């Protein structure tokens, strides 16, 4: 009240207020409330005013119960039982809000009060969802996340069982030879998986709960710093039995699915198949083409690398499939993260100043105001711009408007931005406009630069997207504008079109008005010629020294307290920007944590597949060393084999990833917003490069132990 209204109230003071219902003088039957801002052009009054005396017993900060545009300030007093006054607003907290609010609350409204409202924000935090669209969004995101985790885990466990089965095929043959039935061999593999699940699932659930608790403990201060969340409502880790049961069930199903096919293969294996190993070497005539081509390109090492992959058959296929799944999981999840950041950025407005101050203590737009002088001298201020914005209307007749602006009528709001000569000259230079072009034109027209770019929200087929839209297709000869209540016509001569201006005011891009830049000296002439009342704002925009935004805001607040009049006001978007960054950081923590989980699954997948594959080829490597392959050629063969594995994984992973990313983009576009699809080539190529490097590193590490083994002893071993 003291800061914005210029009214100082002290503790213990008795004040008299006229209480009643706000109404418009023209429409006394339409009551107004705190959501209806005060409009000086629409006179209002208080119906049936009743004077009441109040004693001030405390002073508090502005309440969150009132919006910033509200016409009054909240005062709290005791409710009189004998004379309650206007109808009260009752807030009801239910013991059990239920899990089906769309069914429960309509019945409750009928019993209590038909006009009762529902606090959807509270319901969202508690779990029930009132809005079907919100539930659909959360459900689809959870389903996608669960599907990706289950897919990666199933392939990881399946590869482990499949490679283990290949390694132990002789053991299953021996079991069959001593009378084990197919059913017994099948359940042997399945029970092995269930025993692993018995040990792994409790550890996984415990690790998940602990990880969630640590995450919430870290981000709790960030959540409480958000203005739309109450600092008195911290987030705690709550273990939900249905969620744990669903996790355990999904894990069991996942493990059973992963070991089902290997168990079927083990059940069908006969003793003769286990002894002869007929599936170990299966080469066809067409396979010779690839090995011969590789030999001509990379020598004998390349030919051996291709033949090794071809002879490995199923094991090589499992390895390539594992690598492809790893690539698909990584690129898909990172693409979802990129899309989410892009969607968040669509709705944010980039502010170019850290604060701006308005001072109407003097109506002069040429003289420096004392408060502006104080602000310019602050050590925390890196730069300032004084911009006078004049609100006008441009006449659209004979203007070559862009198609987006068709149908806006004969008049459209315009903003005239007046800056000092130094800023004006710099903007001319940035847009390669000579000062000679901006000389005063004839016939009394005022020269100006027309800003021909506006950040607009475009709706196409029910979808919204943000794009830069020009106002005009071509530069007009003159602009006819009217200023003030009298509406006298003034003429502005656009000397140039500009698409970029380094002004601290974001209204030039986001204001939705036709913007014209003129020097402040011309503005004086313009305001002199315009008769009647004029609507303009004289603001000083400030940019803070990096890292000193808070200091600058505190200093501005101190200067504001020294100017406790209605003429001085200031605003800083730093808090909103900080909240946007905090919210994006919180989302990033969860998503990057999920990406880390996916990368760990992929890494374990690759390590398990490569190390087991190398372990099964010990006799093969010993044979190559026995015929004279030296260390250099052996390493080159391993590197080429790693390259072929990576290329095979890329050939599968890139098309599938593109399909999934396109599908995800399509599903996201079913909402309210739309943004263009961009091929994530850098991400995919980077993923392929990292995958190849990982495979090469793992194969080199796995073969290090093999190289140290005795050749004769390795060849004598039975598989």
UniProtKB/TrEMBL annotation:
The chain crosses the membrane at residues 134-161, 193-219, 239-261, 316-341, 583-607, 642-661, 681-702. It comes from Holdemania filiformis DSM 12042. Its main location: membrane. Keywords: Cell membrane, Membrane, Transmembrane, Transmembrane helix. One of its GO terms (molecular function) is transmembrane transporter activity. It is a multi-pass membrane protein. Residues 146-271, 594-711 form the ABC3 transporter permease C-terminal domain. This is Efflux ABC transporter, permease protein. Residues 27-51 are annotated as: Disordered. GO terms for cellular component: plasma membrane. InterPro entries: ABC3_permease_C, Macrolide_Exporter_MacB. It is found in: Cell membrane. It holds the Pfam family FtsX. Signal peptide: none annotated. Residues 27-37 have a biased composition (Polar residues). Belongs to the ABC-4 integral membrane protein family.
């Amino acid at each position: 009240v003291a800061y914005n209204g210029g009214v100082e109230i002290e503790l213990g003071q008795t004040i008299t207020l006229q209480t009643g219902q706000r109404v418009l003088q023209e429409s006394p039957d339409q009551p107004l409330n705190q959501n209806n801002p005060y409009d000086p052009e629409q006179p209002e009054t208080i119906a049936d005013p009743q004077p009441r005396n109040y004693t001030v017993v405390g002073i508090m900060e502005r309440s969150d119960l009132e919006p910033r545009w509200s016409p009054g300030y909240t005062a709290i007093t005791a409710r009189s039982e004998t004379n309650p006054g206007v109808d009260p607003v009752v807030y009801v907290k239910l013991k059990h809000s239920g899990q089906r609010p769309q069914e429960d609350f309509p019945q409750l409204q009928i019993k209590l009060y038909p006009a009762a409202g529902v606090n959807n924000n509270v319901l969202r935090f508690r779990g029930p969802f009132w809005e079907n669209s919100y539930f659909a969004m959360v459900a689809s995101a959870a389903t996608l996340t669960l599907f990706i985790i289950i897919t990666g885990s199933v392939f990881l466990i399946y590869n482990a069982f499949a490679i283990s089965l290949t390694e132990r095929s002789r053991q299953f043959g021996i079991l069959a030879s001593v009378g084990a039935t197919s059913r017994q061999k099948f359940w042997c593999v399945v029970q092995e998986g269930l025993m692993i699940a018995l040990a792994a699932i409790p550890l996984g659930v415990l690790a998940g709960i602990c990880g969630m608790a640590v995450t919430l403990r870290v981000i709790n201060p960030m959540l409480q710093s958000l203005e739309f969340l109450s600092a008195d409502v911290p987030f705690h880790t709550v273990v939900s039995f249905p969620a744990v049961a669903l996790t355990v069930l999904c894990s069991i199903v996942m493990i059973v699915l992963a070991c089902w096919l290997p168990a079927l293969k083990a059940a069908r294996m006969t003793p003769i198949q286990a002894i002869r190993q007929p599936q170990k070497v299966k080469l066809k005539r067409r396979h010779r083409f690839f090995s011969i081509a590789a030999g001509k390109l990379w020598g004998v090492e390349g030919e051996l690398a291709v033949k090794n992959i071809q002879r490995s058959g199923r094991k090589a296929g499992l390895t390539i499939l594992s690598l492809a799944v790893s690539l698909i999981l990584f690129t898909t999840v990172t693409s979802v993260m990129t899309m989410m950041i892009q969607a968040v950025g669509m709705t944010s407005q980039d502010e170019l100043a850290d604060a701006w101050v308005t001072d109407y203590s003097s109506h002069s737009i040429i003289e420096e105001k004392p408060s502006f002088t104080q602000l310019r001298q602050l050590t925390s201020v890196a730069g300032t711009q004084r911009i006078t914005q004049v609100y006008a209307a441009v006449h659209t007749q004979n203007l070559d408007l862009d198609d987006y602006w068709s149908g806006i009528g004969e008049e459209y709001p315009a903003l005239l931005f007046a800056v000092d000569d130094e800023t004006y000259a710099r903007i001319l230079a940035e847009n390669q406009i000579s000062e000679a072009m901006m000389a005063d034109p004839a016939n009394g027209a005022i020269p100006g630069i027309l800003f021909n770019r506006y950040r607009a929200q475009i709706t196409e087929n029910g979808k919204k997207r943000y794009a830069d839209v020009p106002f005009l297709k071509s530069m007009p000869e003159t602009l006819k504008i009217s200023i003030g209540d009298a509406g006298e016509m003034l003429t502005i001569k656009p000397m140039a079109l500009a698409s970029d201006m380094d002004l601290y005011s974001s209204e030039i891009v986001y204001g939705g008005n036709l913007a014209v830049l003129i020097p402040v000296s011309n503005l004086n002439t313009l305001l002199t010629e315009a008769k009647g009342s004029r609507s303009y704002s004289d603001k000083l925009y400030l940019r803070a020294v990096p890292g000193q935004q808070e200091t600058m805001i505190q200093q501005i607040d101190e200067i504001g307290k020294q100017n406790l009049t209605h003429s001085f006001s200031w605003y800083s978007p730093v808090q909103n920007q900080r909240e946007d960054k905090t919210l994006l950081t919180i989302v990033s923590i969860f998503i990057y944590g999920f990406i880390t989980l996916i990368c760990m699954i992929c890494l374990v997948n690759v390590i398990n597949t490569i190390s087991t594959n190398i372990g099964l080829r010990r006799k093969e490597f010993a044979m190559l060393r026995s015929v004279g392959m030296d260390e250099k050629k052996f390493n080159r063969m391993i590197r080429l084999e790693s390259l072929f594995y990576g290329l095979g994984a890329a050939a599968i992973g890139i098309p599938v990833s593109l399909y999934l990313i396109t599908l995800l983009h399509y599903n996201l576009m079913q909402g309210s917003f739309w943004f263009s699809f961009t091929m994530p080539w850098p991400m995919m190529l980077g993923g392929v490069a990292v995958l190849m490097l990982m495979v090469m590193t793992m194969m080199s590490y796995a073969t290090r132990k093999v190289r140290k083994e005795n050749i004769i002893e390795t060849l004598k071993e039975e598989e």
